[in-house]
Amino acid sequence: MTTVIRNGTIVTADLTYKADVLIEHGRIAAIGQGLTGDTTLDATGCLVMPGGIDPHTHLEMPFMGTYSADDFDSGTRAALAGGTTMVVDFALPSPGQGLLDALQMWDNKSGRAHCDYSFHMAVTWWDRQVFDEMQAVVDRGITSFKHFMAYKGALMVNDDELFSSFRRVGDLGGVALVHAENGDVVAELSARLLAEGNTGPEAHAYSRPPQVEGEATNRAIMVADMAGVPLYVVHVSCEDSHEAIRRARSQGKRVWGEPLIQHLTLDESEYFNPDWDHAARRVMSPPFRDKRHQDSLWAGLQSGSLSVVATDHCAFTTAQKRNGIGDFTKIPNGTGGLEDRMPMLWTHGVATGRLTPNEFVAVTSTNIAKILGMYPRKGAVLVGSDADLVVWDPEAEKTIAAGSQQSAIDYNVFEGQRVKGLPRYVLTRGHVAVDGGTLDSREGHGEFVAREPRGTVNRALSAWKELTAPRPVERSGIPASGV
Ligand code: DUC
Ligand code: ZN
Ligand code: ZN
Ligand code: ZN
């Protein structure tokens, strides 16, 4: 059985041209003029692009006393409905739990996936066992390791652990990921705010000002430089963090920044909504910022100093959010966005002229496929690539509404937003999962994507050289004690 996508315009990260795409056995078999197949999908007036890759999701994750509400079933349905054909989730060992043990848990959950997926491995504690197991994790095709510099007492690692783990990731040819917020300062600010009677969701934003993110991002960059490891900074929300990334990149360091669609389009005024539920539903870390920071993020995407747009999809129901009534530190942190990332970025990025369609493909798919070592199997429209494709109708419109979403939660942070630019067809390894507004995907269709290490040859860091023990200095005489 072959499928052909006819009469469309192919848009990749670097090319725009008219051609048909022939698909066979889940892969792109030919690209050219006048192709025919057993099934024809009409792409007249549409753009044929690599399916979106969301490298930052938390599906069915145990967190803050509960589990995130979207699992690999509803989460990957949401992804496909919005034009995203692959997610990268975080396998998260609880403190003391082995990496391979945690990986087994994520293997079990991900059997329900409707689209392809991969994992990042989180390093949430450090000892010899973790060090040893990291090799086996890389051998499984998981080459990116996440570190939390916040969530003190739970997921946070200290600088000594960060440095040790970064060195190990560098030696294994992997990439280090960081959630960059100064967890000690956040804990202190949170306790002070609560003690002063600030218990509402707006206090969440005050407990995590841009400075905590800027400081931690700078620190992570310097530690990565000393450790000799490429660094990917997740959910860059503010100029303070972006500025550190810009500077590092201008110095030749391999550092990438990932803004979220939420931070690009929603701002901190959401936390001052008089409706407690409205504000709490938008509590995530880092919090939404003001216009100045949003402008910085858009500028970063335009100039290339920021590389990827993700969601950090970590959805909680209103009932789960209400656990934090009377204490903002108990509101589960997280928002959804998987289904809306591509239409929202098209609407606010491409339709406004801030991004070209090629840049849209780069930041939603191709760049992360390269960073994570799965290009051109993913993130490309090339003969031999997986047929993970989106046929994008730039004229189609809808109003975002929780009532018609795939996500399992009872609201949507983008509720009521009008978007222009939607998928007409979405293909996951050649299977048509979205046809018009209709989702027809299959639980269990998704496969794990093993990834390649980046290698250790060009770590391309400014100051880094192998840290070898210095030759002991020869001295004559031994100083008297106390001198
Ligand atoms: N931030 C969130 O808002 N949720 C999940 C984890 C994180 O870092
Ligand atoms: Zn995070
Ligand atoms: Zn996250
Ligand atoms: Zn299949």
Salient structural properties:
alpha/beta; globular; seven-stranded mixed β-sheet; Metal_Hydrolase; 14 helices; 31% helix; 483 residues; seven-stranded parallel β-sheet; binds dihydropyrimidine-2,4(1H,3H)-dione; binds zinc ion; dihydropyrimidinase activity; TIM Barrel
Brief write-up:
This protein is α/β, with parallel strands linked by helices and 483 residues long.
Could you walk me through the main structural features you see in this protein, from its secondary elements to its overall organization?
This is D-hydantoinase/dihydropyrimidinase. It is a single chain. This protein is an alpha/beta fold. It has a single domain (51-384, 448-462), classed as Metal-dependent hydrolases (TIM Barrel), CATH 3.20.20.140. Helices cover 31% and strands 21% of the residues. The protein has helices at 72-81, 99-110, 128-139, 159-171, 183-195, 201-206, 210-227, 239-250, 261-265, 276-280, 291-303, 318-321, 341-350, 357-371, and strands spanning 2-6, 9-11, 16-18, 20-24, 27-32, 39-42, 47-50, 52-57, 62-63, 66-67, 84-91, 116-122, 144-148, 175-179, 231-233, 255-257, 389-399, 418-428, 431-435, 438-439. The strands form four sheets. A seven-stranded mixed sheet has the order 3-2-7-17-18-19-20. Strand 11, helix 2 and strand 12 form a beta-alpha-beta unit. Helix 7 (210-227) packs parallel to helix 8. Bound molecules: dihydropyrimidine-2,4(1H,3H)-dione (DUC) and zinc ion (ZN) (3 copies). Dihydropyrimidine-2,4(1H,3H)-dione binds at residues 58, 179, 284-285, 312, 314, 333-334. Residues 58, 179, 284-285, 312, 314, 333-334 line the site of dihydropyrimidine-2,4(1H,3H)-dione.
